[in-house]
TrEMBL record:
Gene expressing this chain: Rspo2
Domain Spondin-like TSP1 residue range list: 114-167
Biased composition (Basic residues): 176-191
Any GO BP: Wnt signaling pathway
Record PANTHER family: NEUROHYPOPHYSIAL HORMONES, N-TERMINAL DOMAIN CONTAINING PROTEIN (PTHR46987), R-SPONDIN-2 (PTHR46987:SF4)
Record-annotated R-spondin Fu-CRD domain positions: 9-110
CDD domains xref list: FU (cd00064)
Name of the protein in question: R-spondin-2
Length: 212
C-alpha cells in the first residue's frame, strides 16, 4: 500500500506504515534510517554524512563509507571529505599529513611539500672564522632542497643548523701564550712584598749592630 499522506513515505514508490519506504522513486536514494531499536526506510535526494550514493539498475541506495573518519565519499574506499580535524589524502583521512606532504589548511588536504636531503656531517668548530684561540665555538651542518613545494605558501624545513662545540686547539700554533693579567698582577705584587720585607729586615739588622 502507498501511504501518501504519511511524511515518512515522501518520495516512495511503495511504503509500509511500520517500516517506511520500501522502494523509492527514480533518481532518489534509499536510506535505511535507524532510531534506537527501530529502523525504517527513507527516500533522499542525497545521502547523509558518512554515506555515498550507489546507483544500481534495481534501486539507488545509500551505502556506508568504509573509510575511517570520513564525512562523505565517492565510493566505499575513496573519501572526498574528511571529518573536522582530519586531512584528506588520496581518498583517506589523516590527523597529520604523511612524510613528504604538507597540510593545506584552507582545504584540509595534504599536498606535495618541500623535500630536503640528508644532513651533512658537522663542520669544523670555529669562532670569528678562526679554528683556534678560543675554548668554545660553533659547528654547522646543512642539507639541500631536493624538491620545491607545490605552493609557495608552504614553507620548507630548516636547511642549516648550528650547535656549540669545544675547540680542539685552544691556543693557536706558533702564537705567544700569555698568562691572564690577573695572575701576572698577583705574582708581581707578591714579589714586591717579598723585596720590601727583605729590605726592611736588612735595615733592622744594620740598626741593631749600630746600637750594640
Amino acid at each position: 500500500a502507498n501511504y501518501g499522506p504519511n511524511p515518512i513515505c515522501k518520495g516512495c514508490l511503495s511504503c509500509s506504515k511500520d517500516n517506511g519506504c520500501i522502494r523509492c522513486q527514480h533518481k532518489l536514494f534509499f536510506f535505511l534510517h535507524r532510531e534506537g531499536m527501530r529502523q525504517f526506510g527513507e527516500c533522499l535526494h542525497s545521502c547523509p554524512s558518512g554515506y555515498y550514493g550507489l546507483r544500481t539498475p534495481d534501486m539507488n541506495r545509500c551505502s556506508r563509507c568504509r573509510i575511517e573518519n570520513c564525512d562523505s565519499c565517492f565510493s566505499r574506499d575513496f573519501c572526498t571529505k574528511c571529518k573536522a580535524g582530519f586531512y584528506s589524502h588520496r581518498g583517506r583521512c589523516f590527523r597529520g599529513c604523511p612524510a613528504g606532504f604538507a597540510a593545506l589548511e584552507e582545504l584540509m588536504e595534504c599536498v606535495e611539500g618541500c623535500e630536503v636531503g640528508q644532513w651533512s656531517e658537522w663542520g669544523t668548530c670555529s669562532r670569528n672564522n678562526k679554528t683556534c684561540g678560543f675554548k668554545w665555538g660553533l659547528e654547522t651542518r646543512t642539507r639541500q632542497i631536493v624538491k620545491k613545494p607545490a605552493k609557495d605558501t608552504i614553507p620548507c624545513p630548516t636547511i642549516a643548523e648550528s650547535r656549540r662545540c669545544k675547540m680542539a686547539l685552544r691556543h693557536c700554533p706558533g702564537g705567544k701564550w700569555r698568562r691572564p693579567a690577573k695572575t701576572k698582577d698577583k705574582k708581581k705584587k707578591k714579589k714586591n712584598l717579598m723585596e720590601r720585607a727583605q729590605k726592611q729586615h736588612s735595615i733592622f739588622l744594620a740598626t741593631d749592630k749600630t746600637s750594640q
